[in-house]
Amino acid sequence: MQKETFAVVAEYGNLAEAEVAKSYLESAGIWATIRNEFMTSLASGALPLQLVVREGDAPAAREMLKRR
């Protein structure tokens, strides 16, 4: 079984921005998740919210986020 690897494509300071970017990528068929989402709710601002995608999707995701 091969392990899947992931890449951080962006970091955000608030959950609303991260959710919008995640939805934007998902609407294009790119799986995405937000890392540190729950830790930030416990300690606001302690960690940046990281938008994470599969490593193979990272170049396309970064390009999409630049054009947004």
Shape: globular
Quote the distance from N terminus to C terminus. 36 Å
Helix content: 40-55%
Strand content: 25-35%
User: Which structural class fits the helix and strand makeup?
Assistant: alpha+beta
Instruction: Write out the CATH superfamily name.
Output: UreE, C-terminal domain
Biggest beta-sheet profile: 3 strands, antiparallel
CATH architecture call: 2-Layer Sandwich
CATH class: Alpha Beta
Number of helices, where a helix is a run of at least 4 consecutive DSSP H or I residues: 3
Whole-number total of structural domains? 1
What name is given to the CATH topology?
A: Alpha-Beta Plaits
How would you characterize the overall build of this protein?
- The mean pLDDT is 90.
- By secondary structure, this protein is an alpha+beta fold.
- It has helices at 15-27, 37-42, 58-67, and strands spanning 6-12, 32-35, 49-54.
- The protein is built from three helices and three strands.
- It has one domain (6-67): Alpha-Beta Plaits (2-Layer Sandwich), CATH 3.30.70.790.
- The protein has a three-stranded antiparallel β-sheet.
